[in-house]
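Thread title: Can someone regenerate the structure for this chain?

I was given the following input by a collaborator and told the matching structure tokens would be attached. They weren't. Posting the sequence so someone can regenerate them.
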Amino acid sequence: QVQLVESGGGLVQAGGSLRVSCAASGRTFSWFTMGWFRQTSGQERDFVAAISWSGTTSTNYADSVKGRFTISTDNAKNTVYLQMNSLKPEDTAIYYCAANAWLPLGARRNDYNYKYWGQGTQLSVSS
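Best answer:
Regenerated them for you:
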């Protein structure tokens, strides 16, 4: 089993920045994919970003956040980060961290491919 705990959400003004973190514990994967998804009330959970390790690191972003958000990991701390800059009110959502053994590129954007999930952290961006 893998336990994921997100932290770092909060309230920020439009144009501001925030970093959310996801600490993983329990089972570890030599090759892995970790992702961030977000969900607003009544909506489906949307892909935000993913980072995968298979000897090399690869990252993927939703078009809506490309150039503004950066996903990274600190493998020594078993932690994945999502640095969010130039925040917009439409970024307001609950942000969920997800983890799985390595996923091929085509599978990383679908939440149903991730086995492990955190409890979520709320980000609110005011205009």
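DSSP finds no helices and eleven strands in the chain.
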